[in-house]
Amino acid sequence: MKILVPIKRVVDYNVKVRLKSDRSGVDLDNVKMSINPFDEIAIEQAVRLKEAGVASEVVVVSVGSQGCQDIIRTALAVGADRGIHVLAEDGIEPLSVAKTLKAVAEQESPKLLLLGKQAIDDDSNQTGQMLAALLHWPQGTFASEMEIEGEELTVTREVDAGLEVLKMPLPAVVTCDLRLNEPRYASLPNIMKAKRKPIDTLDISSLGVDTTPRFTAVSYAMPEQRKGGVMVSSIDELIEKLKSEAKVL
Fold first, then answer.
1. Residue 249: its pLDDT value, please?
2. pTM, 2 dp
3. Do 220 and 18 touch, CB atoms closer than 8 A?
4. pLDDT > 70 in the chain, percent
5. Where does the record place the Electron transfer flavoprotein alpha/beta-subunit N-terminal domain (predicted)?
6. Which residues of 151-181 are buried (b: 16+ CB within 10 A; e: fewer)?
7. Which residues of 206-243 are buried (b: 16+ CB within 10 A; e: fewer)?
8. What domains are there in the chain, each with its CATH number?
9. What is the mean pLDDT of residues 133-137?
10. How far apart are the C-alpha atoms of 156 and 159, rounded to whole Å?
11. Peptide bond into 183 cis (omega under 30)
12. Are 157 and 144 in contact (CB under 8 A)?
């Protein structure tokens, strides 16, 4: 069974982002970039399935600029077998990414698509769901557990009421949540081996995907600083604060 794992290059989660002076977007000059943390969980799950003998090949795919080569190499060092880089402008919208991944999936014919549940830069949480719809495959989102037995996939997912268990046939799309696993670190020998693993490069235009944006961001602004909390000595004082300051009563 082949597993396809889409990954995204984002600002490292340890970096405090800054806006450009004209507020047209986030300033990415000299900023550390890395694999989206939820995508790292998807990579780890795919590698574990391969180590358990369930999967025969793990292929990672990234859509974006030349910098995506770095995160593909990182994924290869963790245990993926092969990489695919679809050259495109950074920041293309989730629907265009989903259409691109659909085209790649039709070429690769995987039995399972594992994605992170969302990217930490835009928090869209759309690509996995739209990809499943475009492929007409069943989907399990926000997976905290998963098991594969024959041609059937069982996904335990987190919902507002608790946990929900879904059973679905393969091929399928699964988006991974935090509690699914703990991603491993790449060892130095595996980092060296990753340099010899193949990365296929495609141009997004060759896949026939229209990347024309469907919305325009007028400007960006940093969130307002939250005010410090206050301690109240009685219920009456709390009610008065809610009336006079919070204006919720």
1. 63
2. 0.85
3. no
4. 98
5. 23-211
6. eebebbbbeeeeeeebebeebbbbbbbeebb
7. ebebebeeeeeeeeeeeeeeeeeeeeeeeeeeeeeeee
8. 2-246 (3.40.50.620)
9. 96
10. 10
11. no
12. yes
